[in-house]
């Protein structure tokens, strides 16, 4: 009887440890994607190394361009430009599938790998061009 109780206890621990496996999310980050992200850097991978520079799309003297991903799966790209830093917002949608992000903004669709997603950063790599874009919250 004692042996059965010990065996049952060991099996229970085994099942618990198996059910708590860290690969249940298939590498997907659990940080929420929704939020407003300010454009910070762009670049690519050259010779196996990331080469990132300050985003040229951000016009000097203006607020930084942004990407706003809303809970409703709406996406808004905000672009400050011109001598008066006028804000132009272009709307669209987004879909997340594991670590892929598909954005359709202004009739243009792009799919990117989510390279990094934290409470402070979203880093995307375009699947077609290989361009890396870094946003901060």
From TrEMBL:
Would the keyword Protein transport be found if you checked this record's keyword annotation? no
Q: Which residues form the signal peptide?
A: 1-22
Please give the name of this protein. Lipocalin-like domain-containing protein
Keywords of the record: Signal
Q: Name one Pfam family in it.
A: Lipocalin_4
Instruction: Tell me where in this chain the Lipocalin-like domain is found.
Output: 61-124
